[in-house]
Amino acid sequence: MTLETLAHGTTGYFLRRAVAEDIGAIIELMANDAIRKAEYQEAETTAAGYLAAFHAIDSDPAHFLAVVEDEHGKIVGTMQLTLLPGLARAGATRMQIEAVRVDEELRGRGIGSAMIQWAVAEAKRRGAGLVQLTSDSARTEAHRFYERLGFTGSHVGFKMRIAGE
């Protein structure tokens, strides 16, 4: 497992590939999200589902589940990267960034910016021609954050829940 020091004033924080033992900490970060909190209320009863999802992500080279830990080994951030080949844009590969979370108490210290900058560099390294992400329409602060990093609000997204999901 390789640790990569995050840059840009984030001394003492390291990014690495997640391992199965990190699932609890990742879910805790995701559950501390006011908008998505209800989705994680049953986290203990769906542990097998999280583990199955982790193994599907971890076994596919198109995916990278990252965690950021502090110098004491505490997980303080996470994000998932997915490479998406496509015919659009002359066959360009896209990097999708999802589930970006930073511990509430550490926001504003540059960790999220360093994570996204690392993800963009990883997208370039892996040959992607475009980096994209979605953000809940209620997350106006997150939208400003992504815009400061160079992202533009270019599309309107739509979702459909399927029975049982």
TrEMBL record:
It comes from the Bacteria. InterPro entries: Acyl_CoA_acyltransferase (IPR016181), Bact_Acetyltransf (IPR050832), GNAT_dom (IPR000182). Residues 13-165 form the N-acetyltransferase domain. Keywords: Acyltransferase, Transferase. SUPFAM superfamilies: Acyl-CoA N-acyltransferases (Nat). GO terms for molecular function: acyltransferase activity, transferring groups other than amino-acyl groups. Coiled coil: none annotated. Pfam families: Acetyltransf_1. This is N-acetyltransferase. It comes from Glutamicibacter uratoxydans (Arthrobacter uratoxydans). The lineage of its organism: Bacteria, Bacillati, Actinomycetota, Actinomycetes, Micrococcales.
